[in-house]
């Protein structure tokens, strides 16, 4: 077993409802001592408080890189304002500590999804723009960390993003299912079209997806997993990556956002429910947590 795999498997599994002492990291000041019971709690392994909730950050994107969990957020405390300064945090999953962070460029307003491209490169999606970022430079605070960008137009939105090892996968989060689309884009576009605006016709393929999409991740077998949520429901689904057909569906906590697999096969995610912007929702669960897919029901 590799060092990074052991690091994840050595963490104690925390299932069911949890007290504040059972969750790693800094508990947001406005939350009580207990977390609510959530759907599929028996599949949840690790829990970490999402970073900087008290500062108004709303967690969105999730990815795993080099054994660490990365979370992208935007800052807003107003339910009517869905944009704000964006920040990426790097979390040590063993301790729950934030071990690094960097701010996205001023043009970033939502930072809805992230994906690790390998070789130290991070992909951050911001609805109408994709950023390719050199992680070493970014966490060192260097100004030239963004190495390439792609702009999106038409039906293409980067509400969420992932990387299947060959292509960029983006999708739009829509309340109207008739407008919700997913697209596969060649990774080479960052080299050939840096700074350009892409049209839907430049996608290698696309298909329709359900409404309220929030996150996506490809498992080690190429299976596509996606999350869907709002203030009333949360859902994790496995889709056919060729057609978008739903193959399996599992109830989740409301406000579930992006997802990412680690090298042990666990699925990491975060909920925005209980952030200051969404503090009036019926459930508060601003937690980064991992899921054992084998225990889902």
In terms of topology, how is this protein built?
Layout: H1 3-9, E1 44-49, E2 57-65, E3 68-75, E4 86-91, E5 98-103, E6 113-118, E7 121-125, E8 129-134, H2 135-139, E9 146-152, E10 160-163, E11 167-171, E12 181-186, H3 189-192, E13 197-198, E14 205-208, E15 213-218, E16 224-229, E17 234-239, E18 246-252, E19 256-261, E20 267-271, E21 287-291
Parallel strand pairs: 9-13
Antiparallel strand pairs: 1-21, 2-3, 3-4, 4-5, 6-7, 7-8, 8-9, 10-11, 11-12, 12-14, 15-16, 16-17, 17-18, 19-20, 20-21
Describe the 3D structure.
This protein has 297 residues and is mostly beta strands. It has one domain: 5 Propeller (Tachylectin-2, Chain A). Helices cover 5% and strands 41% of the residues. It is built from 3 helices and 21 strands. The strands form 5 sheets. Strands 6-7-8-9-13 form a 5-stranded mixed sheet. It has a 4-stranded antiparallel sheet with strand order 1-21-20-19, with no helix packed on it. The radius of gyration is 18 Å and the shape is globular. The two termini are 28 Å apart. Keywords: Signal. InterPro entries: Quino_amine_DH_bsu (IPR011044), WD40/YVTN_repeat-like_dom_sf (IPR015943). It comes from Noviherbaspirillum suwonense. This is SMP-30/Gluconolactonase/LRE-like region domain-containing protein.
């Amino acid at each position: 077993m590799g060092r990074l795999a052991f690091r994840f498997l050595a963490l104690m599994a925390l299932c069911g409802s949890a007290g504040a002492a059972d969750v790693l990291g800094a508990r947001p000041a406005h939350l009580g001592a207990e977390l609510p019971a959530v759907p599929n709690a028996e599949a949840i392994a690790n829990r970490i408080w999402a970073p900087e909730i008290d500062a108004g950050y709303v967690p969105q994107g999730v990815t795993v890189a080099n054994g660490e969990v990365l979370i992208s957020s935007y800052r807003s405390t107003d339910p009517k304002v869905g944009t704000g300064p964006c920040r990426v945090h790097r979390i040590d999953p063993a301790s729950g500590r934030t071990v690094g962070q960097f701010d996205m460029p001023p043009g970033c307003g939502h930072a809805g999804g992230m994906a690790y491209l390998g070789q130290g490169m991070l992909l951050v999606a911001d609805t109408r723009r994709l950023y390719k970022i050199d992680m070493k430079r970014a966490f060192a605070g260097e100004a030239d960390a963004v190495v390439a960008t792609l702009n999106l137009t038409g039906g293409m939105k980067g509400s969420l993003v992932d990387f299947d090892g060959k292509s960029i996968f983006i999708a739009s989060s829509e309340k109207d299912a008739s407008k919700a689309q997913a697209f596969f884009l060649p990774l080479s576009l960052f080299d050939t079209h840096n700074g350009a605006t892409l049209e839907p016709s430049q996608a290698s393929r696309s298909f329709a997806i359900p409404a309220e999409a929030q996150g996506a991740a490809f498992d080690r077998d190429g299976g596509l997993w996606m999350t869907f949520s709002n203030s009333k429901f949360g859902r994790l689904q496995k889709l056919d990556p060729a057609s978008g057909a739903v193959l399996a569906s599992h109830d989740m906590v409301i406000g579930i956002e992006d997802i990412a697999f680690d090298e042990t096969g666990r699925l990491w995610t975060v909920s925005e429910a209980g952030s200051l912007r969404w503090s009036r929702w019926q459930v508060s669960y601003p937690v980064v947590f991992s899921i054992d897919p084998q225990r889902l029901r």
